[in-house]
Amino acid sequence: MSKTRETQLTTYLVENQARFYRLAYSYLNNREEALDAVQTAVCKALEKQDSLKDADAVRTWFYRILVNVCTDLLRQRKRVTLVPPEALETGSYEDPLPEAGSLARRVDALPPEIAAVIRLRFYEELSLQEISAVVNCPLSTVKTRLYTGLKKLRIQLEGEL
Amino acid sequence: MNDFKHAKEEYEATPIPAELEDRVRAGIRQGKANLARRAWSRRLGTVAACFVVMVGVLNLSPTVAAAAADVPVLGSLFQVLTVRSFTDTTPDRTLEVEQPAIQGGGAFAQQVNEEIQKRVDAKTAEGEQMVAEYKEAFLATGGTQEEWEQHNIAVSVTYQIESQTESTVSFLVESNVSFANAYWERTYYNLDLAAGKELTLADVLGEDWVTICNDSIKAQMAGAEDSSVYFAAEQGGFSTVDETTQFYVNEAGDPVVVFPPYTVAPGAVGYVEFTVGR
Prior knowledge:
The structure holds two protein chains of two kinds.
Chain A: H1 3-15, H2 17-28, H3 31-47, H4 58-79, H5 103-109, H6 112-123, H7 128-134, H8 139-160
Chain B: H1 2-12, H2 20-60, H3 62-68, H4 72-75, E1 79-89, E2 94-103, H5 106-140, H6 145-150, E3 154-164, E4 168-177, E5 180-192, E6 197-198, H7 201-205, H8 209-222, E7 246-249, E8 255-259, E9 272-275
Parallel strand pairs in B: 2-3
Antiparallel strand pairs in B: 1-2, 3-4, 4-5, 5-6, 7-8, 8-9
Helix pairs in contact in B: 2-3
């Protein structure tokens, strides 16, 4: 890859860092892990820059890397021995979660693969086509997840009325 | 979808840590370095393969051997060559090995070759085992074989020559497993083939090597663009060099002291090098 492409890539990465962090944080809900995920994904992007065929597709391409890193971290987490919760209750390092009961909170409570689709669609405003490339699933699966998600959210909303 | 407008605002209100920018830049640096490293070992592999062919020819034909004796580089006491180079790909992982050895140079070189052989074998076996354990854990926690294969896990043991003169050579053997940066390991070899011994910092810098190194490193740390990246001495950072400190000799003949990740600076910085002028 030429130097200019590399420069374009690094500029894109630096300019959009806040978006990446937010997305990673929505997956991991942990400040340190989200920072790690962003750094790892950025590193991988630079390493694999040759696989980016079309410079216009950089957003989808990078989100895919980031989402994969986050999913890997979540999977690794399952393997880690858990500390009993009472040992953790002495204050929290977490940044405040969105207002309890709000829609954003409810999205977080959805199964992770469904929440991911909802976030990418409504927060990051990706098209369904792009989402299917990011999460590496057929378009039909993305649609199903989106509608399942919306349905669940609505049911929960109605349940409260 | 008006509800989502509010949800989006909440989402966008996620506080952004101040160190994010640094982490992104560290990722960029790391990625660029890894990319360069890979390109380098590929080129080195080609060069090494040419050498292997040439050595074959030298052995077969006395005429070519006589002609080669006049070529300056090949005329020196010894050569560093790739003696074993292979890539082995299974669905589970890719194994890449470039094993160097010294040709010529007598019994001492032989001893070094044996040590390299042992190290390469040990590192390859260790890497394979790590991959096997990781895979088992991956599958046990709900990953599928197909997902595993998408990871393109690689174990590599390669080398790089830092500098070479008529009678001395500096090179490093590097092992890596693609999913665990902590496994990234470098071993430097600095050899004086004429004297049949390992070069030490004292050989290169003289009796006062400890003071010379320490002064130079401390000055470089203090003069760095951002000296706070280095751990302070009381935080367990750099205090002094000793016999176990790794180094190599660069093309200019100056020693370059190398600290592994996490020893003098955060792991994200990777291997940290300081050139000590003679």
